[in-house]
Amino acid sequence: MLKARKTIITCAVTGSIHTPSMSPYLPVTPEEIARESIGAVEAGAAIVHLHARDPLDGRPSPDPELFAQFLRPIREATDAVINISTGGAPGFTMEDRLAAPNRFRPELTSLNMGSINFGVFGLAERRGEWKHEWEKPFLEGSRAGFQSNTFAQIERVIQELHHGYGTRFEYECYDVGHLYTLAHFADRGIIKPPFLVQCIFGILGGIGADVSHLTHMRDTAERLFGDDYLLSCFAIGRAQMPFLATCAAMGGSVRVGLEDSLYIARGQLAESNAQQVTKIRCIVEDLGMEIATPAEAREILALKGGDTLSW
Q1: Which InterPro entries match (predicted)?
Q2: What is the value of pTM for the model shown?
C-alpha cells in the first residue's frame, strides 16, 4: 500500500440512490448540495464526491447546468478536490454519465471497475408513503436492472477523461474481481499509479459487509499493486463507521456521506454530511492518525490541481 502520511477523508454528499422521502436532510437542490459540500470540507473532508439532482423532485440528473450551479460555489469557498461521478444513476446512458465530467474536466472522477447487480429494491419495502411518484418504481427497478460497466465502457472513460484531460480516478471496486480488472488496465499501461482503490461493502450484488472481506480485498490489492495504490473504503448503512474505523486502523483512507448512509447512529438520521465527517475525523485522530488537507490529498494522489476545472 502507498505509504501516505495522512488519512484522506472523502465525502459523498448526495449520491443517486437515496430518495427525498428517506431523509429531510438529503441535499437535493444545487444550493443544498453546495452548502453540504462546503460544510463537509470545513469539517475535514479533502475530497467531495458529487452527483446532481433535479431540484423539483430530487431525482438523479446528468445535466451539466445543474452541476455548474453547485461546482462554482464549492470552488469559490474551498480548495476541495472535486470528484464528479461517472456512475451516474440507473437508467443513465454513457453519454449521460460522461456529460458533466467532459464539460468540467475535473481532477478526479469515480470509475466503477465492473458491472454489478446493484440491488436497492429492499429500500422500497421499508416505506409506506412517498413524497414523489418516481421514488418507489426507481428503487424497485433495481430488481431487474444492473449497473453496466463493461471493459469497453471502462476503457472509454479512461480514454476520454484521463488521456483527454489528465483526470485521475477513484477506482470503485464492489468485489474482488474488480481489483483484477483494475490490474488488467494497469498491466496494459493505459493507467498509471498511484491508484486510489475505493473498496465498497454491503451493496446487494457486491461483496458483503464483513471485516474479513476488507482484509481479503486489502491483501489482494497488495499482491496486485504493491506500493502503487492507496486503500480507501466505505460500507453501506449500519456498517459504515465500523468499517471505516477498521480501514483507518489498517492505514487506509475513508469515505463518508449521505450517499452511503443516512444515519449518524443507530436509528438516528444524520442532520448533515459534516456531522458524519466530524465523527470519522474524531475516530481517525483518536487512532493516532492525521487528516490530509486537500493540498496534501492532491500530492498523495498525483492530481493535476484544483484550478483546472473547465467552465
Answers
A1: Aldolase_TIM (IPR013785), BKACE (IPR008567)
A2: 0.96
